[in-house]
Write a sequence for this structure.
C-alpha cells in the first residue's frame, strides 16, 4: 500500500531574494511512496497560500506575524506557483506555503513554506542621443533624460515616475576640471532635460 502522507519540497533554496520587475515562479515536488519504494505523483491536491510577513531574522516570528494576501497563481500547473512581474511590493517579505493533501485520505496532509524577499530595484539613468556627442562652440544643445526609469515602476518614466534630476559636469580635456561651469551654461537643471550652451573652453 502507498504511504498516504505526501512528501513535499521545493526546487531551490528555502529563502529567495527577487525584484518586483521579475515574475515569480516557484516549483514544487510532491509525491506519495509505497513500502516498496514506488513513487506516485497522482492522487495529490495542491493549495498555495502567500502571506505578507515582517522582515525579521526568525522564520517562526515571520509565520506568527503574517497577513494572508489574495494573490492567486497564474500557472496552469498546480505544482508551480507563478505571479506576473510587479505583483509583489518592494521592501516586503512573503511566506509562500504549499499544503499538499492525499486524495486517498483527505486528512493526510503535508506543508512546506519558503520566504520571498522583494528587494528594491535600480534607478536607470538614460540620456537620449548616446553618451558622446559633438557640440559646436556657442550653440545650444538639449540633453534629454526623460526616458530614465525606476525598475520598480511599470510603464512610466522621468518625472512621471517620481524621479528628480540634478545635472553637473566635469571637464576631461585639455585640462581636467571638476567643474565645467565656465564652459557650459545650464538651464532647467532640475528638470528631466537640460539645455546647455558651449562657450569659453579652456
Amino acid at each position: 500500500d502507498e504511504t498516504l502522507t505526501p512528501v513535499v519540497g521545493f526546487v531551490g533554496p528555502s529563502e529567495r531574494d527577487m525584484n518586483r520587475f521579475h515574475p515569480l515562479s516557484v516549483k514544487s515536488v510532491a509525491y506519495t511512496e509505497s513500502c516498496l519504494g514506488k513513487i506516485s505523483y497522482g492522487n495529490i491536491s495542491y493549495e498555495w497560500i502567500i502571506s505578507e510577513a515582517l522582515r525579521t531574522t526568525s522564520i517562526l516570528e515571520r509565520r506568527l506575524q503574517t497577513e494572508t494576501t489574495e494573490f492567486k497563481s497564474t500557472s496552469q500547473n498546480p505544482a508551480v506557483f507563478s505571479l506576473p512581474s510587479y505583483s509583489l511590493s518592494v521592501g516586503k517579505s512573503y511566506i509562500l506555503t504549499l499544503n499538499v493533501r492525499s486524495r486517498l485520505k483527505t486528512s493526510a496532509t503535508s506543508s512546506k513554506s519558503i520566504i520571498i524577499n522583494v528587494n528594491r530595484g535600480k534607478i536607470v539613468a538614460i540620456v537620449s542621443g548616446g553618451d558622446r556627442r559633438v557640440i559646436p562652440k556657442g550653440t545650444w544643445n538639449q540633453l534629454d533624460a526623460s526616458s530614465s526609469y525606476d525598475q520598480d515602476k511599470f510603464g512610466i518614466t522621468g518625472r512621471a515616475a517620481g524621479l528628480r534630476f540634478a545635472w553637473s559636469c566635469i571637464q576631461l580635456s585639455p585640462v581636467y576640471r571638476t567643474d565645467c561651469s565656465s564652459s557650459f551654461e545650464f538651464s532647467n537643471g532640475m528638470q528631466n532635460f537640460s539645455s546647455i550652451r558651449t562657450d569659453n573652453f579652456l
Summary: Residues 59-64 form the longest helix (6 residues). The radius of gyration is 27 Å. The helical segments are 59-64.
